[in-house]
Amino acid sequence: MASKNVDVVVVGNVGIDTNVFFQSGEIDFSVEANFTENIDVLGQAGGYASRGYARLGASTAFIGCVGADFSGDYIKKVFTLEGINTEGFFIDPQGTSRSINFMYRSGKRKNFYDGKSHMHLHAPLEQAKKLFESARLAHFNIPNWARELLPVAKKAGALIACDIQDVVDVEDPYRTDFVRMADYLFFSTANHPDPAPLMHYYLQKNPSLVIISGMGERGCALGTGNSVQYFPPVTLDLPVVDTNGAGDALAVGFLTSHVLEGRSLEESVQRGQISARYKCAQRATSDCMITRDLLDHYQGG
């Protein structure tokens, strides 16, 4: 078996997103023109997660697609400068993803994800196999092409973490493969008042799971075995200006702490929450994910 010289391989989407910040409370459809502040950001789940691990000092590789265009070249350049292994990039013939995120002054958001041809793409299996064989952890997001890599990562001996994001239907067949193959599972309760019923359902399907659910301003939940444990939100003296990437930061903070550093589940949940809360204070950027020193500082404070 190959030596594990990579801490984590992130599998997921990356792109250049436009965050549209409304100056008023809502869109005024009674007039033709609305004035907004539009900011481009290297984003999407794979972008936030990869840069988050790198900022915490983890040796990181990425598997995902970009276009043969300016945006794709820019993303690969940024990753290279930050020490993220780019050997797993492949080309989307329809171009680099460009999602649009509506950002309300109240803090809520509405995301319009740019899937392009993601339902029909195929990642390079041999290159992915080499990366997984060298990695301790495989962090999956859920583009359709990623499901083909789940058995490859499992056979390579990497621990598998899957972020199935904002679940609407707990029985959603699209997410079934990711739930079944995961060792660690993350999801958002944005569409549910309580994560416990979803956690119990997933634990019935995969009893060995460790499940972490972000609950936003209500805190976080941890599901293991037959129990669900709730954690209050962390308090940092920082504004909430942009919640994009917060769920990714929660997963990165938890997995770095628990899987890569061997901290307890409870401490790792806290460090994940701190990472997420810090991300909420960073406006329209993935450049400023939390560092190890800052994470230690806020945990100690």
Architecture overview:
The chain has a single domain (6-13, 43-95, 116-300), classed as Ribokinase (UDP-N-acetylmuramoyl-L-alanine:D-glutamate ligase). 31% of the residues lie in helices and 26% in strands. The protein has nine helices and 13 strands. The strands form two sheets. The chain has a nine-stranded mixed beta sheet with strand order 5-4-1-8-9-10-11-12-13, sandwiched between helices. Strands 3-2-6-7 form a four-stranded mixed beta sheet. The longest helix has 15 residues, at 246-260. It is globular and about 55 Å long. 45% of the residues are buried.
CATH top level assignment: Alpha Beta
Helix tally?
9
Which structural class do you get from the secondary structure elements?
alpha/beta
Q: Return Rg in Å.
A: 18 Å
List its traits.
four-stranded mixed beta sheet; globular; 301 residues; UDP-N-acetylmuramoyl-L-alanine:D-glutamate ligase; nine-stranded mixed beta sheet; alpha/beta; 31% helix; 9 helices
